[in-house]
Amino acid sequence: MEEKVYKSGFISIIGRPNVGKSELLNKLVGRKLSIISEKPQTTRNKIIGIRNLTNSQMIFLDTPGIHMARSKLNRSMTKIALASYQEVDIILFVIDDKAEAGDIDRDVLKRLEKIDTPVFLVLNKIDLLGKKDISSIISLYKEIFSFFRDIIPVSALTGENLERLLKKIDENLAPGPQYFPDDMLTDRPESFIVAELIREKVISSTKQEIPYAVAIIVESLEMKGEMMVIESVIFVEKESQKGIIIGKGGKMLKKIGKDAREEIERFFGNRVYLNLWVKVRKDWRKDDKSLKEFGYH
C-alpha cells in the first residue's frame, strides 16, 4: 500500500470584528486559545493554534478584526490582520449572520482576489439563520466575488459543519513538514496565554471604555511544587479606570482575580496562585514605547 504524503500549512482566519473568528479558532483546534467576548476588537495579536490530523498539520492564525483604525493600537491591529494573508497557505474569510458586504469587506476581498492563495468564505453563526437566509447570503457573495475556493456555512458555537471545513482545508494543503510536535497547541508562551485569560475576565466584568484601555503584563510566572505562582499587572490609562477595576473595597479586582485564576487552572491543569496589581500608564494606546512593551508591535 502506498504511504500517504504528509501535508501541512498555515491558515489565516480573517474578517471584521465580532464575526466569531476566535471561537472558530478554538473549535478548530479543539481547545480554548483565543479569548472570546461580545465586545468588538477583543483579539489584539496573531494567535497561532495547531491542529494535528493523522497525516497533516494545520496551523491556524486568529487575527485582529479588520476595522476602521483610529488609534495607534487599532492601526497596529489592522496592519497585523491585513499582513497575515501574505504569509499563509490558505485563508478563511469569515462573515456572520449580519453578512451584508460592507466597504471594509469589499476592500479586503478585492485585495484577496489578486493573490494566488486559496480563499474560503466561511459563513459563521448559521445557528441564527434559516435555510433561505443562508442560501441568499451565499448567492449574494457568489454573485459579487467568483474567486472563492468554496463557501462553507458553519456554526462555531454548535460545531455544525466544522468537520466539513476541516476536510476542505485538509484537501487543499500541500505536502510539507510537521512544523510543531504532536502535543503542541500554540507557539505562544505561557505568560501570553495567562495575560489573555486575565484580560478576558477584565473585559467580561467591566463596561464602556475599560476593556479597550486595558493591557496586561505578567511580571513573573513560576512553578512552586504543584502550584503555578503568577504576579501580573493590569495597566489602564486613567486613575478613574483604576478605581473601577479595583472596585469598592477591592470587590471588582477580587472577582476578576477569582475568575481569571479558575480559567488559568482549567487551561493548564495546575493549582494557581494569582496576585494582581492595577497601575496607570497614561494614554498608553497612543505611545509607541508602551505599545511595544505590551506586545502590540
Rg to the nearest angstrom? 20 Å
Strand content: 15-25%
Main beta sheet strand tally, sense and closure: 7 strands, mixed
User: What is the CATH topology assignment of the largest domain?
Assistant: Rossmann fold
* Count of structural domains: 2
Distance between termini?
Answer: 49 Å
Shape: globular
H/E element order? EHEEHEHEHEHEHEEHHEH
Architecture of the largest domain in CATH?
A: 3-Layer(aba) Sandwich
Tell me how many strands there are. Answer: 10
Number of helices in the DSSP assignment: 9
CATH class of the largest domain: Alpha Beta
Helix share bin:
25-40%
Key terms:
297 residues; alpha/beta; Rossmann fold; GMP Synthetase, Chain A, domain 3; 2 domains; 3-stranded mixed beta sheet; globular
Can you offer a commentary on this structure?
The chain is α/β, with parallel strands linked by helices and 297 residues long. Helices cover 35% and strands 24% of the residues. Strands 1, 2, 3, 4, 5, 6 and 7 form a 7-stranded mixed β-sheet that branches. The longest helix is centred in the C-terminal third of the chain and has 18 residues.
In short:
The chain has helices at residues 21-29, 72-83, 103-112, 131-144, 162-171, 190-205, 239-246, 251-268, 288-293; strands at 7-15, 47-53, 56-62, 90-95, 119-123, 150-153, 174-175, 215-224, 227-236, 271-280. With 297 residues, it is α/β, with parallel strands linked by helices.
